[in-house]
Design brief:
Elements: E1 2-12, H1 15-34, E2 39-45, E3 51-61, E4 66-79, E5 84-90, E6 93-117, E7 122-145, E8 152-175, E9 179-192, E10 196-199, E11 204-214, E12 219-227, E13 236-241, E14 244-245, E15 248-258
Length: 259
């Protein structure tokens, strides 16, 4: 039996989130172009691409070549005001618009591994399994008019959900005198199709993806919305439950202690 601790980085897909962030900035830019009293100055948009992953496992050795791993941990990723912003000069003053996005997950996974030693010190292993993934997702929009030092947040969404997932793993181990070091790569398939939460005004419901018509510019902005039932207003298009896809590759470096 052994304890495995690891730390690394993951690259989830989250294409729907990045689409919404891009559409938010495009909507502001089109407003600045349409309103003569607004002047677009600059924008920064760094897509959500990576997160930090910590994992802790119990390894049960069935034989020299086979083992079972029960793994939990924590993953966290965010994009803050320095990565998602737009600067617009308006009659009320030079204004900084921002988005903040945070994703945190807690996995519980059972995997089976095949171990192949090729020396007294080195071995490779491969396997896979599945489990459950718990998610917390936050998105909020802020604005600050210079010379103010703090932001106001007119829109905020907080949601949570749970989904099953599958995972494959491949790793290499270096056995030292009392401990072992390992490098492990994983690919996870995890998609959330039903997320529940509330918005800034306290309205509860499910998270929907939609495009909302902006009458000033004629632009259809992609966004998330909390609603108790599917929105049906003619000012909305492409309405469906949000699909938060966290499938992706991760790479971790870790320590294994036998006891």
């Amino acid at each position: 039996m052994a304890i495995k601790l690891s730390l690394g980085q993951g690259w989830p897909q989250v294409s729907e989130i990045n689409q919404i962030l891009l559409s938010w900035q495009e909507s502001l830019q089109k407003q600045a172009e349409a309103l003569k009293s607004w002047t677009w100055e600059a924008g920064t948009l760094r897509q959500f691409k990576q997160q930090i992953e910590f994992a802790a496992s119990l390894e049960f050795n069935l034989s020299r070549y086979f083992s079972l791993n029960l793994t939990s941990g924590y993953t966290y990723g965010e994009r803050g005001q320095d990565q998602l912003q737009a600067i617009i000069d308006r009659p009320v003053g030079r204004s900084l618009f921002i988005q903040q996005v945070k994703i945190a997950t807690l996995p519980l996974c059972l995997e089976a591994f095949f171990h192949l030693p090729f020396s007294s010190r080195w071995e490779i292993y491969a396997g896979g399994g599945g489990g459950w993934l718990w998610l917390n997702f936050t998105q909020r929009e802020g604005i600050k008019v210079e010379p103010a030092s703090t932001f106001t947040y007119p829109a905020e969404i907080n949601v949570h959900g749970r989904s099953q997932f599958l995972q494959t793993s491949l790793g290499v181990v270096c056995h030292l005198r009392d401990i072992s070091l390992f490098l492990e790569g994983n690919y996870r398939w995890a998609k959330f199709g039903q997320l529940n939460g509330e918005n800034k005004s306290g309205q509860e419901g499910q998270l929907y993806y939609l495009r909302e018509y902006q009458p000033e510019t004629g632009y259809w902005q992609a966004k998330y919305m909390i609603a108790a039932s599917q929105p049906t207003s003619p000012e909305f298009q492409e309405v469906h439950l949000a699909q938060l896809d966290l499938s992706g590759f991760s790479l971790k470096l870790g320590l294994k202690i036998k006891f």
